[in-house]
Amino acid sequence: MGNPAITLPSYDVLDAGDPLERLLRISADTTLSWLPELGGYLVTGYEDVLSAMKHPGMRSAVATRVFARLPEADQEALRRLRLSIDMWMGHATEEGHHRFQKLLKRYFTPAIINGLRPRVRELTGELLDAVAADGRMDVVPDLAFPLPANVIADMLGMPTSDRDRLREWSRHIMAVFQHADVEKLMASQDSVLEMQDYLREIVADRRVSPRDDLISMFAAAEREGVVNEDEIVANCVLLLFAGHETTATLISRGLQLLMANPDQLELLVSRPELNRSAIEEMMRHGGPATSVIRETIEPVTIAGHDIPAGEHIYLAIHTANHDPTVFADPMRFDITRKNNRHLGFGMGSYYCLGAALARVESDECFRLLLSRYPNIRPATDQAPVDVPLPPFGRRLDSLPVEF
Ligand code: HEM
Fold first, then answer.
1. How many CB atoms are located within 10 Å of the residue 252 CB?
2. Rg (CA), the chain
3. Ligand 1 mean position to 352 CA, how many Å?
4. Of all protein residues, whose CA lies closest to atom 27 belonging to ligand 1?
5. DSSP 8-state code for residue 6
6. What are the pLDDT digits (tens) for 61-92?
7. What is the pTM of this model?
8. Which one of 155, 252, 352 would you pick to mutate in the ligand 1 pocket, going by the greatest count of ligand atoms within 8 A of its CB?
9. Domain assignments of the chain as residue spans, ordered by start
10. Which superfamily is assigned to 4-402 in CATH?
């Protein structure tokens, strides 16, 4: 590693405070900086983030980032977690990544995903029925968190009685994406291993009695020699964590934004045809993925600065989505915003596989929620508390509402 601190502004990002406000402050100063605590670069401007996302000289670096910072003994203790992560979307090699993209496109087709709409509506209805008589709910545990987990449980063909286990696993596995300590990563590893063992039984069943679910699709691909059992279970774990907390955050943050902007909530209630554009604005303004991480595999130039191979680069989606040179009045939450080219689902070769699914889930959820409870409002005067998820994330654990 060179010494970027000599030529670039550098920032501490792990201290207390709102990580997104900090990112926006950095972004107002510069598009490229150095983060000494993380030993990586940070890119904040829209055009630079976009071109880095599309750059063939960089690859996704989740695994190396999690493990490289740990002492060797901890890395060894977490060996089985790493083995699983290395299989996610075949990221370890370009051939593997293409193989998985092609394979998963068999399931994530527009026809299959749109075909899930009635079921998503039904699952949303079940959750809303459960709180209807109370006239109030906590949106996070009662709706936003269980809905995407239940959709994924259905996709994987899990029985309804096992849904709670799925949610528990998911929470632990998320530690992989935060600047978590070894204890949390060990809990993550335990959950990954438990979930994989559980899934092996479903795979065995679908080999002999295929159904209309994702694991049956994987079992068919296994027969063709495209994928093996370890890869199947590892990638089901990936789909769980990739699609659960992200979509849950979109729903809870999206509703928080609507309630904080009553004119926009009123507009959406009176014009439900704006639902899709409202969801794109939720993705831009308060999107769940606030950054992604890359590793340079060859020397690259970003914002006029040469970066050697083997460096880590954080691409700040949140600041790109608030770049005033691309989005007029970027801090304004405007559900009628036109030409909303947000980067909330990434771009380029790692573009979100589940973007259409997340859009279907949130579309159905908001349509039903607002048609049933058009006068939904915060149940308390206190602003909801954000839990910071270092380095650049945050999560809402509670959003009490009345309706
Ligand atoms: C609002 C919800 C979601 C958000 C904000 C989101 C965000 C993202 C982002 C930003 C990426 C790019 C990562 C990178 O560039 O390194 C990504 C990739 C991915 N997402 Fe999503 N996602 C969401 C929902 C889902 C769902 C529902 C699924 C599937 C069930 C899913 C599966 C994936 C997978 C498998 C990848 C990796 C794609 C690849 O490497 O080729 N996501 N997502």
1. 25
2. 21
3. 4
4. 243
5. G
6. 877 777 877 899 999 999 999 999 999 999 88
7. 0.95
8. 352
9. 4-402
10. Cytochrome P450 (1.10.630.10)
